[in-house]
Design a protein that fits this description.
Blueprint: H1 2-21, E1 27-30, E2 39-48, E3 50-59, H2 60-71, H3 80-102, E4 108-110, E5 114-115, E6 126-134, E7 137-147
Antiparallel strand pairs: 1-6, 2-3, 2-4, 2-5, 3-7, 6-7
Helix pairs in contact: 1-3, 2-3
């Protein structure tokens, strides 16, 4: 299940970045070497057959680059507009993954994205993370899910 989710999120992220940001040079790798002190963290909560959350960790520079590509406007700092834009990217990626999972009889739903802190000490059956590297920066996804009881 862990590998299936990893692949689904990696594929959905690559597809969304290609379609929305016109970025085709995309690769993924384990997040072991991802280090970032200044980032925008967006959580998408998952309910249904899987429960937990997926956290999208956008370094500030990547967040600003994404919004620049999406809007054609230059931003120097993260504000409500930038946070909303990267939240929507996370929402679309997560929705695409859950649509794919529903084709395999796994029924899940997502809650609206919210900015979060990385302070979750809860145990998760599925706990994996990976990074997506692109020409405009890197993002890290942390998948933290349990199967519903």
């Amino acid at each position: 299940m862990k590998d299936k989710l990893y692949k689904a999120f990696a594929d959905a992220t690559q597809n969304v970045f290609k379609l929305m940001l016109n970025i085709s040079e995309i690769s993924d790798h384990p997040a072991g070497d991802f280090k970032c002190d200044d980032e925008v963290d967006i959580a998408i909560s998952v309910t249904g057959d899987l429960q937990g959350k997926v956290i999208y960790r956008y370094p500030i520079s990547t967040s600003l680059n994404i919004v620049n590509v999406m809007s054609g406007m230059q931003f120097d700092a993260v504000d409500a507009f930038v946070t909303s834009a990267v939240s929507e990217i996370a929402n679309i990626i997560s929705g695409n993954v859950l649509s794919e999972l529903s084709e395999n009889d796994m029924n899940c739903d997502i809650l609206p994205p919210e900015q979060c802190k990385l302070d979750d000490d809860k145990e998760y059956e599925i706990n994996t993370s990976y990074c997506i590297s692109t020409t405009i920066g890197e993002i890290c996804l942390e998948i933290r899910l349990n199967r519903a009881s």
